[in-house]
Here is the input.
Amino acid sequence: MSQKPNILIVDDDPHIRDVIRIALDTQGMRSMEASTGKAALTEFTRSSFDLIVLDIGMPQMTGFEVCKAVRQTSDVPILFLTAQDEEVERILGFELGADDFVGKPFSPRELMLRIKAILARGKAAPQKAIENGRLRAIPNRHQAWIDDTEMVLTGTEFSLLLVLLRHKDQVFDRNRLIDAAYGGHAQLSGRTVDSHIRNIRAKASDLGCNDIIETVHGVGVRLGACAK
Here is the structure.
C-alpha cells in the first residue's frame, strides 16, 4: 500500500486551516498545520512533506518569505493561497518557485483537484531519459541534469522544459506552450510563462549552459542546443 501524502497547511486563519484539513482527510491524505511562517519552517525541518499549501498574506512572515526559505533547501511542491487575483503577485510567486495558485475564497473541491494534479506529476514510474546536448531529463521523475549536475526545477518549470525537450525542433508561442504542458487547464498567463522561462534559463546558466532555450523573435521559443 502506498504511503498517504503528507501536506503542510500554512495559514493564520484557523477556519481556513480546518476547511483544508477536513478536505484532505476526506481524500485520505495526512496533514499538519502551522499558523505562522516561522512555525511552518519549524515543522518543515521536523517532518517530510509531499506538498505545502501556503497562504501569502500572513503577518510578520509572508508566504513569499516562507517560500524563499524553503526553496533554499528543497523543491517540495508549493501551492499558494492568495486573497488577491493580481498577475504581479502570481509572477512573483512563480519566480520564487511556486507550483500553483488558488484564490480566496476557494472551493475545497478545486483545491483538492489542484493538489492531486501537482502530486500526480511526481508519482508516475520512471521513464527513459531524454537527452539534448548537455541536457538530460527523466520525465516522470521530475529530474533534469546539465552534464552530471541536477537542475532544481519547480513542477511548472520542469513541465514547460519537458515540452520543449520532447519537441526539439518546434517553436512554441506562450499559449501553445501552456496547452502542451497542461492541456489548456492551467491558469498561466503569457507573463507568468515568461517568468518561468527566465527561471529555467538562469538555473541552466548557473550550471554553464547559456543556450538551453532560444527565442525566435515574433514567434515564440524553442529548445536550444545546450552546448555551451
Summary: The chain has a mean pLDDT of 86. Helices lie at 14-26, 37-46, 63-71, 87-96, 108-121, 155-166, 174-182, 190-206. The first strand starts at residue 6 and ends at 10.
